[in-house]
Design brief:
By secondary structure, the protein is α/β, with parallel strands linked by helices. 47% of the residues lie in helices and 15% in strands. 32% of the residues are buried. The structure holds adenosine monophosphate (AMP).
Length: 213
């Protein structure tokens, strides 16, 4: 089963993608996480990606597609995967479709987690992330047991550069210009399903489970 998560940055698609991955026993693949891991490890790829990420811009398609196509070739992807943050442009979606078609495969579901822009800005400025293990928290909705400390690995929690309000506004603009057209793209392929992302995350997940049945 191959699932794509769509939605604005901060809509909660990552949280839902992790839950889907757990329930269906398939890997959760986040291009954002792959880039952040590379930044942390100081790789050339990380250095290149950081230039764009810190400005709220998309990493160029060529680089992103290469990374993603490499990842989905891994053995753990043989039963499918849930993609979180990819594709983000029409050309990325087209490359994915054409690569899958060569293998006689296709994307099965595109799930759009729908949240209005005004909710997004509020959510993201309260988000705190662990740069060591990638876990995310929220000052209001998902507090760590101890303020400023990751429950999972004990590292310090920070406001990611790309979650700062000025960057969030830029990311929303980029989302509307470059990523939102994918809603139409997958709607035409008749695999698009929208869920209300403003409700409690458990409710969002129930709605997604009903779609994936
Ligand atoms: P995310 O964690 O998915 O919100 O991604 C964080 C940042 O990584 C984005 O703002 C982009 O700069 C970059 N990024 C992640 N996925 C992609 C993608 N599919 N295409 C281009 N840039 C991406």
């Amino acid at each position: 089963m191959k699932i794509i998560m769509l939605g604005a940055p901060g809509a909660g698609k990552g949280t839902q993608a992790k839950r889907i991955a757990e329930k269906f026993g398939i890997p959760h693949i986040s291009t954002g996480d792959i880039f952040r891991a590379n930044i942390k490890n100081g790789t050339e790829l990380g250095k290149e990606a950081k230039k764009y990420m810190d400005e709220g811009k998309l990493v160029p398609d060529e680089l992103t597609v290469r990374i993603l196509l490499d990842r989905v070739k891994d053995a753990d992807c043989s039963k499918g995967y849930v993609l979180d943050g990819f594709p983000r442009t029409i050309p990325q979606a087209e490359v994915l479709d054409s690569e899958l078609a060569k293998l006689n495969e296709k994307v099965d579901y595109a799930v759009d987690v729908d949240v209005p822009d005004e909710n997004i800005v509020k959510r993201m400025s309260g988000r705190r992330a662990c740069l060591n293990c990638g876990a995310t928290y929220h000052l209001e909705y998902l507090k760590p047991a101890k303020d400023g400390v990751c429950d999972k690995c004990g590292s310090e929690l920070v406001l990611r550069d790309d979650d700062k309000p000025e960057t969030v506004n830029k990311r929303l603009k980029v989302y509307h210009e470059q990523t939102q057209p994918l809603i139409d793209y997958y709607s035409k392929k008749q695999i698009l399903h929208a869920v209300d992302g403003t409700v409690d995350p458990d409710e969002v997940f129930k709605a997604i489970e009903a779609i994936l049945k």
